[in-house]
Amino acid sequence: MPKIKPVSDLRNYNEVLRDVTIKEPVFLTKNGRGRYALMDIQDYEHMRATIRLFSELSKGERSAQEGGWISADDVDTSLGLL
Predict the structure, then answer these.
(1) Which of 18, 25, 19 is nearest to 39 (CA)?
(2) Do residues 41 and 25 lie in contact, with contact meaning Cβ atoms separated by under 8 Å?
(3) Burial class (CB within 10 angstroms; exposed 0-12, middle 13-18, buried 19+) of 38
(4) Per-residue 3-state assignment (H helix, E strand, C coil) for 6-73
């Protein structure tokens, strides 16, 4: 279950930070609406790496659609494996 707290709870930020764990962010609300998310740095780094990976995969797919695919033999040749 998500941990949701009003942003005013940051007055006692140690308690709020204690609730932040790996894979369990704390969501802060302002005026009754979701506003901020506090997450463990490990989760943040994993999320950023995932976004970069998907971005690179998307570039590769676009390149293949526009320029065509190359054969496995061509890859082996370009890597000096044949």
Answers:
(1) 25
(2) no
(3) middle
(4) EHHHHHHHHHHHHHCECCECEEEEECCEEEEEECCHHHHHHHHHHHHHHHHHHHHHHHHHHHCCCCHH
Residue range 41-79, pLDDT digits in tens: 999 999 999 999 999 999 999 998 998 888 889 888 989
Residue length, the chain? 82
The pairing of strands 33-38 and 26-30 is antiparallel
**Is the whole-model pTM more than 0.85?**
no
Q: CA 26, CA 2: separation in Å to the nearest integer?
A: 7
d(CA 20, CA 8): 16
